Automatic annotation (TrEMBL):
It comes from Melopsittacus undulatus. Keywords: Cell membrane, G-protein coupled receptor, Glycoprotein, Membrane, Olfaction, Receptor, Sensory transduction, Transducer, Transmembrane, Transmembrane helix. Odorant receptor. GO terms for cellular component: plasma membrane. It is found in: Cell membrane; Membrane. GO terms for molecular function: G protein-coupled receptor activity; olfactory receptor activity. Signal peptide: none annotated. Belongs to the G-protein coupled receptor 1 family. Its main location: membrane. This is Olfactory receptor. It is a multi-pass membrane protein. The chain crosses the membrane at residues 25-46, 58-76, 96-118, 138-159, 195-216, 228-251, 263-282.
Length: 305
């Protein structure tokens, strides 16, 4: 690739090169995108209108849901358009901005997952100090710091990817400008990109290292069950998110596994944002209690009417 890099145009090869599969995939991903928007907007609305959900955990969850909406919106509309279009080119600037936005959103999500893990750690290991440690002010400070850190780290990450010289073909074997396929076109050293984003996963790990022994030390089986139930939704989300990420970014891929890599990315960029509202709305007892109250109110109203 010669000349001014800002004039470069990449070609996104997409999720599949089979024409007969593009229309069914368009319908599938469109439905997933709609469900993602409805589900995450529903979670945000539910938390805001329900006093029982005005807790630090659900405050963090609303930000997480908002990140899921943004994350899906950065990827899905472009992917849907490419499935029906023959022109799959994307400019250097647009590709760089897409990666920057995704790096920012992914970093915020990692930090929010770490904050949720810390919230569960304090709730289970230090319940008497929970209100003092996880106050409203602390929540706002943690969220604000995560946005600031994510912005700065996204700038560094994007510069590490796009700051080098491009000497390969302009074909990106992916359905969006992800770091791994873009780095295959870069000539210069890019090892520094592999260290970003590790700290939040360590916070999650260390939190549960402290949580699990505390839960196991509870004498009653009912107490253990209740303690584990407070962590189930978060653990499910963490497992899906980090499992797919680690598969994509920590394990070397071969030419034969490129299709598996793409579907792993689909899992954590498109499917996971759709599943998160379902996980939290179906598993959390507070949401169940709110829905039960709402159903009871509707039942009483219908009886009176």
């Amino acid at each position: 690739m010669g000349g001014n890099q800002t004039q470069i145009k990449f070609i996104l090869l997409g999720i599949t090169d089979r024409p007969y599969a593009q229309t069914p995939l368009f319908v599938l991903f469109l439905l997933i995108y709609i469900v993602t928007l409805v589900g995450n907007v529903g979670i945000i609305t539910l938390v805001r209108v329900s006093p029982i959900l005005h807790t630090p955990m659900y405050f963090l969850l609303t930000h997480f849901a908002f990140m899921d909406i943004c994350y899906s919106t950065v990827i899905s509309p472009r992917m849907l358009a490419d499935l029906l279009s023959e022109d799959k080119t994307i400019s250097f600037t647009a590709c760089m901005m897409q990666l920057f936005t995704l790096a920012f959103l992914a970093t915020v999500e990692c930090h929010l997952l770490a904050m949720m893990a810390y919230d569960r750690h304090v709730a289970i290991c230090q319940p008497l100090l929970y209100v003092t440690i996880i106050s409203s002010r602390v929540c706002w400070q943690l969220v604000a710091s995560s946005y600031l850190f994510a912005f700065l780290s996204a700038i560094i990450y994007t510069w590490c990817v796009f700051g080098g010289s491009f000497c390969g073909p302009n074909r990106i074997d992916h359905f969006f400008c992800d770091a791994v396929p873009v780095l295959k076109l870069v000539c210069s050293d890019t090892h520094s990109t592999s260290l970003l984003g590790v700290s939040s996963s360590l916070v999650v790990l260390l939190s549960y290292v402290a949580i699990i022994p505390t839960i196991l030390s509870i004498n009653s089986a009912e107490g253990k069950r209740k303690a584990f139930s407070t962590c189930t939704s978060h653990l499910t989300t963490v497992s899906i998110f980090y499992g797919a990420c680690f598969f994509m970014y920590l394990f070397p891929s071969s030419h034969s596994s490129r299709g598996a890599d793409k579907w792993a990315v689909v899992l954590y960029t498109i499917v996971t944002p759709m599943l998160n509202p379902l996980i939290y709305s179906l598993r959390n007892k507070e949401v169940k209690e709110f829905r039960t109250r709402q159903n009871g109110d509707v039942g009483r109203c219908s009886t009176v009417c």
